[in-house]
């Protein structure tokens, strides 16, 4: 039987911090809009900021649906599954916000990710929890974690900031979402900080 929790603390926080992958789900307000579900990884790029707040680095890639949806309506759900150990599925339903490179809070958040490979970071997604709950996870299979994939960080890490900006602008669903919502503001502001 699932439980709800008031805060991200104790064993719930430990569970989140131990998982090598999580999923982010968002949707636009339009009834015919595309629901988005994205796997997230890269060690050290998700942090528990406080008992009700999480943040993760958003990277360049195939699109910017999460950014577009949180800009439009803020709704976001994060989910973790126990692929080893006791079965568990944990969800944090919350209010999301994208903090971009030209936001003064960008420099405040980056130290939270110290030690993470932040090559290709274009935003920080901040999630303020409204509901924290778990479920049994009995149907989630056991899977073995081997290691991090390095291709994404290596590929983006070879780009200068100008090249990364051009890369983001070249992608079809980065400036606007699949449904035409504003997504990543372009041109991408330059990073004024040192890479994390």
Task: Sum this structure up briefly.
It is built from five helices and eight strands.
Give start-end ranges of low-pLDDT stretches: none
Task: Tell me, rounded to a whole number, the average pLDDT.
Answer: 94
The profile of the biggest β sheet is: 8 strands, antiparallel
The fraction of residues in strands falls at 25-35%
Return Rg in Å: 17 Å
Helix and strand string, N-terminal first? EHEEEEHEEHEHH
Q: What's the helical proportion of residues?
A: 10-25%
Helix-and-strand structural type: alpha+beta
Q: Number of DSSP strands?
A: 8
CA-to-CA gap between the ends?
40 Å
The rough form would be described as globular
Number of helices: 5
Explain what the structure shows:
Strands 1, 2, 3, 4, 5, 6, 7 and 8 form an eight-stranded antiparallel sheet that branches. The protein is globular. Helices cover 20% and strands 30% of the residues. It is α+β, with helices and mostly antiparallel strands and 196 residues long. The longest helix has 10 residues, at 161-170. The protein has five helices and eight strands.
Search tags:
single chain; 196 residues; alpha+beta; eight-stranded antiparallel β-sheet; 20% helix; 30% strand; globular
């Amino acid at each position: 039987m699932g439980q709800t929790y008031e805060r991200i603390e104790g064993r719930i926080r430990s569970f989140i911090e131990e998982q090598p992958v999580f999923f982010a789900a968002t949707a636009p307000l339009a009834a015919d809009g595309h629901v988005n579900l994205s796997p997230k990884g890269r060690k050290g790029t998700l942090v528990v900021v406080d008992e009700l707040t999480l943040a993760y680095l958003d990277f360049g890639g195939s699109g910017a649906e999460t950014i577009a949806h949180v800009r439009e309506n803020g709704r976001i759900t994060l989910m973790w599954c126990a692929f080893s150990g006791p079965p568990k599925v944990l969800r944090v339903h919350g209010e999301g916000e994208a903090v971009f490179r030209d936001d003064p809070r960008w420099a405040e958040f980056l130290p939270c990710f110290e030690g993470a490979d932040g090559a290709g970071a274009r935003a920080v997604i901040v999630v303020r929890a409204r509901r924290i709950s778990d479920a049994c996870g009995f149907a989630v299979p056991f899977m073995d974690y081997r290691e991090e994939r390095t291709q994404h960080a290596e590929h983006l890490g070879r780009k200068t900031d100008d090249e990364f900006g051009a890369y983001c602008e070249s992608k079809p669903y980065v400036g606007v979402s699949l449904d035409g919502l504003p997504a990543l503001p372009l041109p991408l502001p330059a990073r004024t900080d040192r890479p994390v």
